[in-house]
């Protein structure tokens, strides 16, 4: 019989770091979503979908890959893409390489929406995340984020890595 292992409680320094990160994880998405809703009339999830398509070859991606990129279920993505289709920003088409898949395609109007929305979003990211930090801290944030991402996703399946420069 296995003996229960004593919990490895956080030190005061670790607890402070964890609570700071938890606060960012809770508040940053809401702040980014609020900016996009206010300035562009779209949610952060909708922006992720549009931006993901805008950075894909031929502005096209399989729905299953897009769901993974946007970190949403295929069902949630389908509902969002339906809304984006009604606005004329995205269209769906069967994948000619494999008819079992559906492709999401960013339309020209969708491209224009991304181009119009991106500057405000980038400014929000700059204001909320980058400007409070020194250049050294930005480099550290990049390294810290990468290390945490590898711990969370050791196989490196996170699709956002394909858009890194």
UniProtKB/TrEMBL annotation:
Which keywords label this protein?
Answer: DNA-binding
Q: Which InterPro entries match?
A: HTH_MarR-typ, MarR/SlyA-like, WH-like_DNA-bd_sf, WH_DNA-bd_sf
Q: Name one Pfam family in it.
A: MarR_2
A molecular function (GO) held by this record is: DNA-binding transcription factor activity
Which top-rank group of organisms is this from?
Bacteria
Identify the residues that the record assigns to the HTH marR-type domain, covering every copy.
Answer: 12-150
DNA-binding found in the keyword field = yes
Q: Where is the signal peptide?
A: none
Q: Give the record's GO biological process terms.
A: response to stress
Write down the PANTHER family for this protein, in alphabetical order: MARR FAMILY REGULATORY PROTEIN (PTHR33164:SF99), TRANSCRIPTIONAL REGULATOR, MARR FAMILY (PTHR33164)
Q: What is this protein called?
A: DNA-binding transcriptional regulator, MarR family
């Amino acid at each position: 019989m296995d003996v229960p292992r004593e919990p490895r409680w956080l030190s005061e320094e670790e607890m402070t770091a964890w609570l700071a990160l938890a606060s960012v994880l809770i508040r940053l998405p809401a702040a980014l979503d609020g900016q996009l809703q206010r300035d562009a009339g779209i949610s952060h999830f909708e922006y992720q979908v549009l931006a993901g398509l805008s950075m894909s070859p031929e502005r096209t991606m399989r729905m299953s890959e897009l769901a993974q990129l946007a970190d949403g279920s295929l069902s949630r993505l389908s509902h969002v893409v339906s809304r984006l289709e009604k606005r004329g920003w995205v269209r769906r088409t069967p994948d000619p390489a494999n008819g079992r898949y559906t492709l999401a395609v960013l339309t020209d109007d969708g491209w224009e929406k991304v181009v119009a929305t991106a500057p405000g979003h980038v400014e929000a990211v700059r204001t909320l995340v980058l400007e409070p930090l020194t250049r050294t801290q930005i480099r550290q944030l990049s390294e810290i984020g990468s290390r945490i991402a590898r711990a969370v996703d050791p196989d490196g399946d996170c699709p956002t890595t394909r858009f890194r420069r």
